[in-house]
Amino acid sequence: MTQFKEQFEALLNEKKLPAKYQEIQGGNHLYRFQFRISEDRILIVEVIIQDSDKEYFDVQVIYRHVHVLNDYSKQNDALSLINELNGMRTGYYHLYLAGDGEIYLRNLMRIGHDPYPLYETIVVGSGIARNLQADFEKKLGPSAKI
What we know:
This protein is of the alpha+beta class. Helix content is 35%, strand content 34%. It has one domain: Yope Regulator, Chain: A. The longest helix has 16 residues, at 116-131. The chain starts with a helix and ends in a 6-residue tail after the last helix. 24% of the residues are buried.
């Protein structure tokens, strides 16, 4: 894992993608990124990498606050839209509605020692989240401020 972590951080530096790092429960690794998805909104991306000495290990990439419901009575509309978008527009990524009205995007993957697929997953997912903004605003109204 140490070698992967070093290679991943070198790739992030090379691509000029700043991240905040934190070791979390179980020795796992958390990276946080920020991507601008509109003039007034920032997407927080959390990457959790399993600490493992094995050849392959699990990674979870979570795109926080893709949209936040202003009116929780639109929950059914949100779920219907999420189902539609998951079926047509998100590919290997999946949208979820949290109990507090947050809609987030998530990708689960198993990777080996090459960090480049993880980097691409992070970047592609942020583009997907950005491209979904018009759909959310049209059907659910503007996102609530965080």
